[in-house]
Amino acid sequence: MTNQALVATAQALVADDKGILAMDESNPTCNKRFARLGIPQTSEAHRAYREMIVTTPSLGACISGAILYDETIRQTTSEGIPFVQAVIAAGIIPGVKVDAGAKDMAGHPGEKITEGLDGLRDRLKDYARLGLRFAKWRAVIVIGDGLPSRACIEANAQALARYAALCQEAGLLPIVEPEVLMDGEHSLAQCFAVTEQVLHTVFKQLYTQGVLPEAMLLKPNMVLPGLSCSRQDAAEAVAQATVRCFLRVVPAAVPGVMFLSGGQSAELASSRLNAMNVGFKSRVPWALSFSYGRALQQPAMETWAGQGTNVKVAQQALLQRARCNLAARRGEYRAAMEVTGS
User: Fold this and answer.
1) What is the pTM of this model?
2) Catalytic, out of 177, 204, 281, 332
3) What's the confidence (pLDDT) of residue 1?
4) How many domains does the chain have?
């Protein structure tokens, strides 16, 4: 795939106020969520759940891309259709998570380094042959007492940049995901400072590795107070802090900022994205969009609960969340949509 084709994929993923569905939970993560709902933790249950997701009628009207897990790519729907083809048939661009997860970082207690660069070039070639058009790599940064360390930020930024360069070489659009975690008591201001430092370092490394900014997407955290912080700032304050931070460090050439939900409730994720687009959509150089996992899927998973008889109503729950976030991209989301759906 040429650079022009990668740029076209990036533009397609941010077009028409749509966003990306992150359905790339690892098997251990998926099993934990299933266990809480009494759903069997089996490969077949994973397959049935993901089939329910990708066959949701009209999902492509709100969702431009779907990030798949490797297991899903190897599976088929109950009608024998490979999941990649089912996603394409729904009018959605298929992508894949390619990192091997965040592991304890040697010499830095409490911090993580994302692994998976070994053999990545060959894996990316295989994914491209299977029809995938983009990939995703996640790094996690913790705010705490003396954290994050400069070593952790630098190591994760370099890994993200090397991954992104390999993606562009293989003809896959890289989604770069540096996530400053919400866990902790930190304030909005502390999150701002760490997020600015992380993004500055990431883009410096991307430049060093020769990554074309027009042919990538950024999937960052919003600038938020920690979940345990006594002050939980309003959506408008979050929007202002997030955009102000990103204007300092995210190049204008990047087509889109696809926010992760990161443990926010579905409603808060929509409300905060909406506040950004209400206040800043016409004033920023990149699309302010979403790449949500739990904030899109959780209501559907809870409704489905592993029961085939619940598929249709679970799909309606998923579609409503997708429509709420489509509205948030337009700055038209209202709390009443949570009840009426419109």
Assistant:
1) 0.97
2) 177
3) 59
4) 1
